[in-house]
Amino acid sequence: MRIAYLDCASGISGDMTLGALVDAGVDLAAVQAGIDSLGLPSCRLVVQETKKCGFRATQLTVEHEPEHKHRHLHHIEAMIAGSVLTARQRELALRIFGKLAEAEAKVHGTTIQKVHFHEVGAVDSIADIVGSAIAWDLLGVERIVCSPVPTGTGFVQIAHGRCSIPAPATGELLRGIPLADFAAEGELTTPTGAAIVAALVGEFGPLPAMTVETIGYGAGQKDFTHPNLLRLLVGESSAKATPSMSDTIVLLETNLDDVTGEAIGFASERLRQAGALDVSTTPLAMKKSRPGVLLAVQCRPADAEALAAVIFRETTALGVRRSTVERIVLPRRTTTVSTAHGEVGGIVATLPDGSERFSPEYDACAKLAAERLLPLEQIQSAARAAFTTG
Predict the structure, then answer these.
(1) What are the CA-CA distances from residue 278 to residues 153, 273, 329, 347, 386 (Å)?
(2) Which domain holds residue 357?
(3) pLDDT value at position 112?
(4) Residues 345 and 304 in one domain
(5) Are 161 and 66 found together in one domain?
(6) One domain, residues 225 and 117
(7) What is the pTM of this model?
(8) Which of 205, 237, 269 lies at the terminal end of a domain, its last residue?
(9) Phi, psi (deg, nearest 5) at residue 11
């Protein structure tokens, strides 16, 4: 499997991303051809080699005629629809702009349709985003992994005035994404860079097991006391031999010693209905020798706040511990098998050695067992046998 790793030691921006992609071997002329078809006023991508604190990198800048124009999402969607971009490139570009629109709508209390793009609606930002979408497609990677992202510290001047870093839209885009502790003065991660990460990256963490083929360096516009570079490592992962995958989830935990069993059961069901990936309870010995329960909830990063609200509403919790964890999961698919007792659905997981394991669905087996007046295990065994025999 072809894999890319974004090493965001100094944050990420649109021009740093596109510069790193070009430095890693993406054809600049092909990217420029796609940009030309957008109908932007005389927009040209210019790259040159530069050095940041002694390290070489590709510096990308967007040269264009001056304009005083702000755009809404539908304007940009129309430009992309009328371009020569491939279907995949259009989908990537629209996904990034969609993330930006959602973030801007959230922080300004409006709708996606009414969002008025300021900085990200300018020619250079459009070129950075669409150019990056084209370049990612041309790079041909199947999996993108990213390091924790530093934001920088201090303040930044935007169209709405002076704001603390991360800027409001950047902060919204980085919800659920691991952030790095790096107290550099200045904006390291821009809304454009955050949108690219939020839209395209599937996993976060350290450099995964891979054979590196090429490395690209994209330089930021500013100079710091550290190398202001985005490093992109591209190569082959071990996914062909080991089909397990990893992703990042949020773990919510709280200790309870003054809640009834009924209330915990009710809260657990509400949490599952609200989108929790898993809910579990563990007996605890708490202060004053009182028996208690550890309530643990696994969820997607985007669902963490909503699920924490359920915990506070349905239990007596005064606080919830939140941590971001990486999990390893097996590829899986759903299927249905036919048995002498009826059809049973289930999940097929692919193990690291390539073999498959079938787990029949409990509800389907329980329903057949009740209807046929048979033991549950007999239905489950018949379902597993039906899968094995094909």
Answers:
(1) 36, 11, 14, 16, 29
(2) 332-389
(3) 82
(4) no
(5) yes
(6) yes
(7) 0.64
(8) 237
(9) 80, -165
Token readout for 84 is 């020569």
Residues 299 and 353 in one domain: no
Count of domains forming the chain: 3
pLDDT digits (tens, 9 = 90+) for 97-141: 999 988 988 888 888 877 767 555 588 889 999 999 999 999 999
Domain containing residue 281: CATH number: 3.30.70.1380
pLDDT digits (tens, 9 = 90+) for 192-208: 999 999 999 988 989 98
Q: Are residues 74 and 184 in the same domain?
A: yes
Mapping DSSP onto H, E and C, the string for the chain reads CEEEEEECECECCHHHHHHHHHHCCCCHHHHHHHHHCCCCCCCEEEEEEEEECCEEEEEEEEECCCCCCCEEHHHHHHHHHCCCCCHHHHHHHHHHHHHHHHHHHHHHCCCCCCCEECHHHCHHHHHHHHHHHHHHHHHCCCEEEECCECCCECEEEECCEEEECCCHHHHHHCCCCCECCCCCECCCCCHHHHHHHHHHCCEECCCCCEEEEEEEEEECCCCCCCCCEEEEEEEEECCCCCCCEEEEEEEEEEEECCCCHHHHHHHHHHHHHCCCCEEEEEEEECHHHCEEEEEEEEECHHHHHHHHHHHHHHCCCCCCEEEEEEEEECCEEEEEEEECCEEEEEEEEECCCCCEEEEECHHHHHHHHHHHCCCHHHHHHHHHHHHHHC
Which is it for strands 203-204 and 143-146: parallel, antiparallel or unpaired?
A: parallel
Q: Give the domain-ending residue among 279, 302, 329.
A: 329
As a whole number of angstroms, the distance between CA 57 and CA 73 comes to: 33
Query: With 0-12 CB in 10 A as exposed, 13-18 as middle and 19+ as buried, what is 172?
Result: buried
Q: Are residues 202 and 289 in the same domain?
A: no
pLDDT tens per residue across span 148-175: 999 999 998 877 688 999 999 999 999 9
Decide if 148 contacts 9 (C-beta within 8 A): no
The per-residue pLDDT for range 326-366, each reduced to its tens digit, is 888 888 888 999 999 999 999 999 888 788 999 999 999 99
